[in-house]
TrEMBL record:
This is Aminotransferase class V domain-containing protein. Residues 107-397 form the Aminotransferase class V domain. Keywords: Pyridoxal phosphate, Signal. GO terms for molecular function: carbon-sulfur lyase activity. The keyword Kinase does not apply. Residues 1-18 form the signal peptide. It comes from Prunus persica. The keyword Lipid biosynthesis does not apply. InterPro entries: Aminotrans_V_dom, PyrdxlP-dep_Trfase, PyrdxlP-dep_Trfase_major, PyrdxlP-dep_Trfase_small. Pfam families: Aminotran_5 (PF00266).
Amino acid sequence: MFFVVHALLCFLVTQVMAEKIIMFCRYYVLLIVLLPYRTLQFFYHKLSFQVSRASNLDAAEGIENHVPIEPKISSSFITDSEIQSEFAHHAPGVARMNNGSFGCCPASVISALQQWQLKLLCQPDHFYFNELEDRILESRYKIKDLINAEDVDEVSIVDNISTAVAIVLQQAAWAFAEGKFNKGDAVIMFHCAYGAVKNSIKAYFSRAGGYVIEVQFNFPLNSNEEIISEFSKALEREKGNGRRVRLAVIDHVTCMPSVIMPVKQLVKICREEGVEQVFIDAAHGVGCVDVDMQEIGADFYASTLYKWFFCPPAAAFLYCRKSATYSDLQLHHPVVSHRYGMGLAEESFWVGTRDYSPYLVLPSAMEFVKRFKGGVEGIIKMNHDAVVEMGKMLAEAWGTNLGCPPDMCASMIMIGLPSCLGISSDDDTMQLWAHLREKFGVEVRIHYQAPKDGEVVLTTGYVRICHQIYNKVDDYYKLRDTINQLVHDGFTCALEFNEA
C-alpha cells in the first residue's frame, strides 16, 4: 500500500512539474529567445533616430551657415557613351552647332528639374513659404563661389540677360528723371552689342534723354589691340567734347560676330577715363570663359546659366558689386511684387507665382560638371580646342579664313563662307540659317559683314560654329559637305530667296 501511495504521489508531482515546465516554456522561453533581438532592435532604432536627427541638424546648419555639401567622389570620369545618353533627347539627325543660342540641358538635370516641379505642384503653399527661399539662397551661394564674388548679397538670380539689363538701365532712367544725370549724358557700347540690349538702351536710356556712343571695330580681327584702340579713341573724343559718360556696356563674349572681348583692359580704361559704371553683358560667360569678379572689376556682370552651364531656360544671374549695391542707385527688379524695397536679391527671389525650378537645379548642374576631368575649366578648354580645330578644318575646306585668332575665341568661332553664296544682307543670313535647318538638318548661325564704303571684300558671310560636349566631328563634316553641295549646285541667296 505504501508503494502504491508513493508511486501515486510521484506521478502527481511529476504531472505538476511537467505542467509548470510547459507553462514556463510557453511564457518565458520565447521571451528569453527574443530578448536579444528586441534589445538589438531597440538600440538600432535608437541609433537610427540619433543619426537621422544629427543629419537633419547638420543639413539645417548647412543651410543656415551656407556650408556646401561635399559631392560624392567618383572614381572615374564621365564616358563618351554616358555623355551621349545624357543628351539622347536631342533631335536625331540634326547637326546642332548652335549651343550659343539656347544652350543644352543633360537628362540628369532635366530629372532634377521635374522633381522640383512636382514638389511645387504637390504642395505649393509649403513649397513657396517654407522651402523656396532657402533653395534659391543655396543657388546664390554657389554662384558667388563660382564667380569669386565677395558677398552673396552681390548675387541676384534672374531669368535672363534682358532682365538684368533692364535692372541696370532702369536705375539710369530714374537718374535722369530725378536730376542725378543730365540730358546728353552718355552710355558707350560696341556696335556688335546684342540686339535686345540695344533695344533696352533705346527704351530706358535714350528715351530718358541719354546719348549713345557706338564704337565700331573692323572684322575680321587680328588682335585685341584693335578693339582697345577704337574704344579708347571713342572715349577720348567724347571726353574732349565735354560729354560725361555715365555707363559702359561691354560684352564678355560677343554674339555675332563672336569674339572674346578684353574686358579687364576695357574696364581699366573706363576707370581711368572717369566712366561711372561698367556693365558686362556675359550671356556667354559662365561655362564658356573664365569668370572672376575680383579680376574683372566691373560694377555689374550678368551671365546666363542655360547657355554653357547646363541649366534649363530660364536661369541667369546679375552680379552687382558692393559699392554699387549699397549706393543710392536704387536697383530694382522690373517686376514689382511684395518684396519691393527689400534689396535687389530679395526682389528678384520673388516676382509672383511662377515656376522657379530652373533657379533650383544649379546644384545638380554643378554635380554634372564635376563628372568631367578638370570640372568647368576642363570643359572650357576641351570646347575651345575642339572648336578651333573644326574651324580650321572648315576654313581649309572652303578656302576661306577664320574671323579672329584662336586665342580670341571661346567655345565659338567664326569661319568665312564661300563668296559665291552671295550673302549680301542680314535678311540673307536669316533665310540661309532657316534653309540649312529645314532642308539639311544643320543648325548654325550666319553673320553678314557689310563692307565699308568703297571697300571690295570677297567674304561677306561668316558662319558661327559652337562646340559643346555633345558635339561630334560628324556634325562639322555635315556642315562642310552641305556648304560644298550648295556651291556645287550653284546656289546663291539672290536666286533662292530674293526671287522666291
